[in-house]
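User: I've been trying to design a sequence by hand for this structure and keep getting stuck. Would you show me what you'd pick, starting by listing the structure so we're on the same page?

Assistant: Good idea, let's start from the same input. This is the structure you sent:
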């Protein structure tokens, strides 16, 4: 097995460099937005799925303003593609941006910038989940989660990171086979309702 911990740490370091290089936080702040890092980066559990996730709050639902702000990031070197989804009329109440960035090794990263309206049911949820995970995290648990993520990726098994965290933190899952059983048994359950024991 490759040194998955070294790979995870290198990917995490690269992700921080990308955020700095693209000036994401400053550009969003200059546009009146509060940007919260969520997902695997906010918990230090980034492995081989190269993604960077932000939940953004501005109090504005002006789509043109959102386009202008994202445009300032999208013109940076390395951004090759931008996707946009308008969920303002859906339950999500959000504007979702997906920026595709290629690093110096030509690896593709997806940067998700999700602008949530104040009445979105997802306001603060990802941040609360990350806080719970971080409060329960130990070096041993991090190693287990990263190893399982690495093994699942090598086997091309589809999973969501939150599933892995719940399985390890709530059910003491420690092998890929145990995770697959847990995943099947817990399919469709509320991922946001994460408990730490």
């Amino acid at each position: 097995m490759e040194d998955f911990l070294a790979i995870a740490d290198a990917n995490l370091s690269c992700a921080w460099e990308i955020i700095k290089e693209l000036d994401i936080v400053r550009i969003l702040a200059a546009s009146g937005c509060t940007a919260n890092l969520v997902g695997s980066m906010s918990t230090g559990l980034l492995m081989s799925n190269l993604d960077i996730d932000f939940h953004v709050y501005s109090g504005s639902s002006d789509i043109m303003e959102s386009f202008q702000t994202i445009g300032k990031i999208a013109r940076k070197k390395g951004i090759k593609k931008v996707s946009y989804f308008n969920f303002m009329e859906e339950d999500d109440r959000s504007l979702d941006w997906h920026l595709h960035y290629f690093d110096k090794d030509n690896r593709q990263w997806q940067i998700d910038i999700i602008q949530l309206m104040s009445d979105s049911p997802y306001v603060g949820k990802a941040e609360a989940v990350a806080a719970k995970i971080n409060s329960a995290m130990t070096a041993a648990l991090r190693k287990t989660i990263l190893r399982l993520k690495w093994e699942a990726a090598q086997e091309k098994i589809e999973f969501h990171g939150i599933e892995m965290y719940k399985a390890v933190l709530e059910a003491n899952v420690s092998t890929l086979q145990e995770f697959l059983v847990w995943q099947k048994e817990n399919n469709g359950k509320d991922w946001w309702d994460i408990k730490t024991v």
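That's my pick for every position. To get oriented when you compare it with your attempt: Residues 11 and 87 are 31 Å apart (CA to CA). The chain has a mean pLDDT of 93.
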